[in-house]
Amino acid sequence: MLELPLDLSRTRAVILDVDGTIAGSDHRVADRTIRAMRELDRAGLAVMLATGRSRSNVLDLSREAELRAPQISCNGGVTTDPVSGEDLRVRTMDPVEVRAMVTLHERTGQDFTWWTADGIYVTTPALQRTLLAFNDSDVVLASANQLDETAVLKAMVWGTKAQLDAISPEVSELVPRATRSMDEFWEISAPDASKWAAVAFVLDRLGIDPALVAGAGDGGNDAVWMEQVGAPVAMGNARPEAVAAARAQIGHHDQEGAAEFLEEIARQIGCPVG
């Protein structure tokens, strides 16, 4: 049994990142985790995914788990009611920052991807294969000079950890707001398209105090929302920013650490997952 120095008995909502958190290295979410999310929803908790994955992918996952709370995709760019399919909140990037990301891509030679509400676009087949592994079927090969600067929700450059560490000075110069997602992406969305901005929107809509929210994350882009909620935990594989923002650390994403965390919430609120 997972032992945490946290009182989770009053939890009313749960925020979950996907890749590096509820999904393993194969980018799949285990049946055990899906079942735990479903049982918490049935117990009356608002279970929300807050992830960089696409709108369509998040809706697929939330519907598999039968979640009813609004779900957050594209790092806060889109918030959607999974029951009706209605988009409740959409935030696009400033075209100036879109152009800065294109410049970063061109200057460094790192592969580039941009996301809209309708699809995902990539500059190389290698990056296309990588994103398809995240179970996204709408990944289109394109050139950066083809993008519509007014429609971009999120933009990212992709590479190895060493490559992205090496281009940190260029990132700081061109797109200082960019954050690391896992180790393979530098990414940016609109200022009000952060995961926390979207989470705050949903919590206000549902009338839930952030102090009564638990959550799990692993990336630098999770740290902000983790600092705002009552019971944030970092995965065993988490980046330092997420660990620093957490009140406790749980198991590795490849060892179903998030499932154990969800089951511990269920145990403390009095509805253990069978």
Question: Could you characterize what this model shows?
Answer:
The chain is of the alpha/beta class. Helix content is 34%, strand content 19%. The chain has ten helices and 14 strands. The protein has a six-stranded mixed sheet with strand order 8-7-6-9-11-10, sandwiched between helices. Strand 3 and strand 4 form a beta hairpin. The longest helix is centred in the middle third of the chain and has 14 residues, at 95-108. It is globular, with a radius of gyration of 18 Å. It starts with 12 loop residues before the first strand and ends in a 5-residue tail after the last helix. The model has no long low-confidence stretch (mean pLDDT 94).
Mean pLDDT: 94
- Biggest sheet details: 6 strands, mixed
Strand content: 15-25%
List the strand order in the largest sheet: 8-7-6-9-11-10
Radius of gyration, in angstroms, nearest whole number:
18 Å
Structural class: alpha/beta
Terminal-residue CA separation: 14 Å
Number of helices: 10
Write the H/E string, N to C: EHEHEEEHEEHEEHHEEHEHEHEH
Number of strands: 14
Shape category: globular
**Helical percentage:** 25-40%
Extract low-pLDDT stretches. none
